[in-house]
Amino acid sequence: MTTEYSGTGDPARSLALLWRTREKASRKGGDLSVDRIVRAAIEVADAEGLAALSMRRVAERLGVGTMTLYTHVPGKGELLDVMLDTVYGETARPERVEGGWRGRLAQIARENFALYLRHPWLLQVATTRPPLGPNLIAKYEYELRAVDGIGLTDLEMDAVVTLVTGYVHGAARPAVEAAQASRDTGMTEQQWWHAHAPYLEKVMDPNRFPLAARVGTTAGQEYQAAGDPARAFEFGLARLLDGVEVLVRDRAGAAPAGVTGG
């Protein structure tokens, strides 16, 4: 799987582009804009994968010459940063979420999970050097508010948000891969399982693999597939939040009398 890296563009140009501080109209570009270029690039990545993304491919989609794009976007590195920041702006950020901090973190996790399903190419971008744009920072601000005022230190707040979003990144991959396999092979996960399960029963010795036979049979009958990424995501999310709850209770027990969090 192709891996790209965010944050590879020129810092000054990338930040100017992300925050639109120097965008101007160009006669050569007509009504072309950064937003139109970025939207076309996202459409290419969504439809064809990140490996297909190039300045030339985006120009073809827009019906313009490749060099025309460079009057708006310095290069592919800067373009990728703005693509990331743009899709980060898609996550819903309701003011009120039921269930206190736990409900808020669960909502954030599900929004991020859905984002990966809409834009599978996000899993192909290493973002340890994130695009420092307005949408990313607004997203981070919202996610931090989920755990603000519950007794955690600033570093613990950051760590909890990182823990949740990191978990989603890993949990989303099987769901994305299952969807892509169904699309590319024309066979659903259920169809694949029903085609293979009868033969597995014939060749696998339950005496040699007793646990795999027992648990695998139960799981296969329940999922009607080799696995259920969505159910696994929800199960893992609940266990992760259980762990955060232990931390919050521990901090509440150590807090001065009268200090509580919601």
UniProtKB/TrEMBL annotation:
A Pfam family recorded for this sequence: TetR_C_1
Keywords associated with the record: DNA-binding, Transcription, Transcription regulation
Annotated GO MF terms: DNA-binding transcription factor activity; transcription cis-regulatory region binding
Record PROSITE patterns: HTH_TETR_2
Domain of life: Bacteria
DNA-binding region, residues: 54-73
Gene3D superfamilies: Homeodomain-like, Tetracycline Repressor, domain 2
Transmembrane segments: none
Domain HTH tetR-type: 31-91
A biological process from GO: negative regulation of DNA-templated transcription
Name this polypeptide is given: Transcriptional regulator, TetR family
